[in-house]
Amino acid sequence: MTFTCRNQSCQAQWEQADVIIKNEGQGLLFRCPMCGARNYVERFEADDGTVVYEQIEGRPMT
Ligand SMILES: [Zn+2]
């Protein structure tokens, strides 16, 4: 699973381990280490407890 920065002039690709996912109050996101753009993600938990994050377009509905 890799993330692609949604900043059109950046589009850097990151592994989940490369970024810090946190909630700044508008949903889970990571800031691109290259350009600082906000990239929103959604958290999924598998039956075995494994947590994965999937990148979403724009920002989540609140
Ligand atoms: Zn970027």
Task: Give a quick set of tags describing it.
6 strands, 62 residues, mainly beta, binds zinc ion
- Give the mean pLDDT: 92
Structurally, the number of domains stands at 1
Q: How is the biggest beta sheet arranged?
A: 4 strands, antiparallel
Q: What's the β-strand tally?
A: 6
Q: Low-confidence parts lasting 5 or more residues at pLDDT below 50?
A: none
Q: What is the H/E string? A: EEEEEE
**How much of the sequence is in beta strands?**
35-45%
Indicate the structural class. mainly beta
> Which ligands appear in the coordinates?
zinc ion
N-to-C terminal Cα separation, in Å? 25 Å
Could you characterize what this model shows?
By secondary structure, the chain is mainly beta. The protein has one domain. The protein is built from no helices and six strands. It has strands at 2-4, 13-15, 21-23, 28-31, 38-45, 51-55. The strands form two sheets. A four-stranded antiparallel beta sheet has the order 3-4-5-6, with no helix packed on it. A two-stranded antiparallel sheet has the order 1-2. It is globular, with a radius of gyration of 12 Å. The mean pLDDT is 92. The protein binds zinc ion. Zinc ion binds next to loops.
